[in-house]
Amino acid sequence: MTMYVPQEFAGTTPGGRKVLLKFRQAEFAERLAATRRRMRERGLDALVVFAQESHYWLTSYDTAGYVFFQVGLVLADDDSETVLLTRTPDLRQANVASLYDDVRVWLNAEDANPAEDLRAIMAEKGLQGKKVGVEYATYGLTGANARLVDKALEGFCVTEDASDIVRTGRLVKSAAELRHVRIAGKLADDAVRAAIKATRPGIPDTVLSGAALTSMLAGGGDIPSGGPLVNSGSRALYGRGIGGPRLIEEQDQILVELAGSHCRYHVVVEHTLVTGKPDPRQIDMLKVAGDALDQIKDAARAGVALGTLDDIHRRVLDDAGFAKARYAACGYALGCTFKPTWMDVPPMIYSGNPLIMTPGMVFFVHIMIPDATTGLTAGVGQTFAITEGAPEVFSDLPVQLYCC
């Protein structure tokens, strides 16, 4: 087995603290500078960062601490310090593995209100009366914490939703990011192969999930930020994973959708497996799904509106008689993400989405046909990057019905 253990890079914060980073320091400097340019274009004096993906992309800070109140402060001035407000369990990794200049801690107590601590930091930085963007659209800011923030900043400064500021930069991947994406694709393919190899009647379908995860971790990957989704039998028509194992039968179907993850960058693949004798109707369904996927990849070109891809999805499936079975969207963007999901949205791939595809954008497209009338399912999916020509597909596995 090939192992893809990621490299770490030495760096130094402006204050002189030595740190280890997931990318070269120059790349983080470019990301921060571009983010600040977008902030100034919007007239923002500062950005309050709650998305863990933003922490990671801007500073290399990698943690699960975003499930609590955790916030970064980025001022629009190029020479200003960045500040992180977090909890004690995250202090060490913030200090040794992130480029945050100033790391502060708030302490749990019955009367603790970290939003007021944030306001105090903002007052230190001269932000009273200024215009500040807030990352609201993230799992890193619960509704309860958002209410605390809004109350603490009411009358102190002018706020607006700026959830798109960092996300806009993250949408187009750099060459260094794409190297991790390519490795994630290899890990995903290996995980599917491991799941196929493990498949046999009489075992719980969770054995397939275990084989897939073991393969990814042994290959130098991370535990992905979602899944694996391994649904068998009637569950194969579900659009989400479900808790509790099910025994695979002699004649059965299994939908496998999983992500390979390398340095938090994800590649998703989807395949349909069967035990016993394949149903001819299911073989035909897979041909329809595969045809739709091929046509979408042919159309995925720089300069084309993203919604065009879902137009194809709808046309091919509707023409084949699956209008009632298909989904209302056929995929989404991928990137560096944290639990609870590998979906890096927006953008979603739905008909009418006006986003123009540009080189470096990475999308997962899946064609799912859960046919409730027959009880059969057909699901295929691949991840690709937009280039100057044909998309770069990050999977080598054939798109077919896998008989186990």
UniProtKB/TrEMBL annotation:
Q: Which UniProt keywords apply?
A: Dipeptidase, Hydrolase, Protease
Q: Which residue intervals define the domain Peptidase M24 in the entry?
A: 180-388
Q: What's the top EC group for this one?
A: hydrolase
Does Cell inner membrane appear among the keywords? no
SUPFAM superfamilies according to UniProt: Creatinase/aminopeptidase, Creatinase/prolidase N-terminal domain
Q: Where is the Creatinase N-terminal domain?
A: 31-172
Cited InterPro entries? Creatin/AminoP/Spt16_N, Creatinase/aminopeptidase-like, Creatinase_N, Pept_M24, Peptidase_M24B
Q: What is this protein called?
A: Xaa-Pro dipeptidase
Query: Where does this protein come from, organism-wise?
Result: Neorhizobium huautlense
Q: What is the lineage of its organism?
A: Bacteria, Pseudomonadati, Pseudomonadota, Alphaproteobacteria, Hyphomicrobiales
